Amino acid sequence: MEIFSKRNNKERGIQSVRRFGYRGSDEEGIALIKDGTRVRLHQQIKYFCSSLNYVERYMMVHDENRDAFSLYSKLIIDFSMREAGYNLSEYLKIDTLEFCNKKLDDSKFFDFIEMLLIFAKEDKRNELVSRFNKIFKEESEPFIIHSFMIIETEQSGLRSALPLIKDILLQKSIREYYRNNIHGTEYEILAKISASILQRLTTSPVSRGKTKDYAEELCEAVAKKWTDQKNVKELKQLLNETIKNSKDLSNQVTNIRHSDQTTIPVDSPKIYKLIATKNINIAELIILTLPERYISEQNPFELKKTYIEDYNINTGASWRYEKKQVKVKEDEEINLEDIPF
């Protein structure tokens, strides 16, 4: 399976985008979220891992000395080594859930959140996802959780979700767009590719004759996610007009979707840049607002089941740290001469 850091590194070929730079020095890791967001996520995790209510019992350990529950560090460390290729305990103290400050790295923190969601109880996973997404939204962070996967929604564009896009032809076109956008100067090519992406997204999969209705329904679905019910109709109309305008530009400017004499020839690359940027931004909005339609949902239950089978995990285990036996010395005979009074 591929968790956050592996998915993102594969698409970028580099470390995750540093939204807030390094923490002090190159050795101290990378920050992708604000400090306040991290604190809130951290506290939620501590709550989830303080009882047997949210995480599978075989991933938890009961410390009889404190009469408290925590994650079983061995299983978490084994998972991180096997699936992510590093020891998570170098970044996060599993037993206490405290960060190792000198190696703060939010990509590793996100890996841990995804691990937690995979091994959440089946009837509790949606609640965990809802709480995490609520924090991301309230803190205006460019991340959402789809299934168990944390997806970046802004700086990386669709790169974070690219390997998960269901439609293979759509995925291929988006990959081609980013491949040609490395230098950011091939605007005519980018305009062509982005126009095909937008066209595929807004065309009815049933019949071309139903594309108008399909596009309107798509705009309504997006509007419902981002505004109150009383404003849905107006936002839907604005989005629909925006898409229509963008498609008209792609259709009527020469060498984007058509090259005949009725199209408008332009000499400025800025026009192609405008079209490319507008098209891809609309595509990002649609796909990342409606991940349930476009992004494959890796089944966390199946991933958990496969991992358990591959590594012979004992799901019936009830791990515990036994209570330490306090040795009591036998009473020694008291010498009255030793008493100072």
What does this structure look like?
With 341 residues, the protein is mainly alpha-helical. The chain has 2 domains: 4-159 and 297-321, no CATH class; 166-294. 48% of the residues lie in helices and 7% in strands. It contains 12 helices and 7 strands. It has helices at residues 4-12, 35-48, 73-83, 106-118, 125-138, 168-180, 187-202, 211-226, 232-252, 269-289, 291-294, 300-310, and strands spanning 60-63, 68-71, 92-93, 98-99, 143-146, 149-152, 319-321. The strands form 3 sheets. A 3-stranded mixed sheet has the order 2-1-7. Strands 3-4 form a two-stranded antiparallel sheet. A two-stranded antiparallel sheet has the order 5-6. The chain is elongated. Residues 13-18, 20-27 and 326-332 have low confidence and may be disordered.
Question: What is the straight-line distance between the termini?
Answer: 74 Å
Supply Rg: 27 Å
State the assembly state of the protein chains: single chain
Strand coverage percent: 5-15%
Tertiary shape? elongated
The unreliable regions are: 13-18, 20-27, 326-332
Strand order of the largest sheet: 2-1-7
Characterize the main sheet.
3 strands, mixed
Whole-number count of domains: 2
The total of beta strands comes to: 7
What is the SS-derived class? mainly alpha
Give the ordered list of helices and strands.
HHEEHEEHHEEHHHHHHHE
The helicity comes to: 40-55%
How many distinct helices?
12
| Mean pLDDT across residues | 85
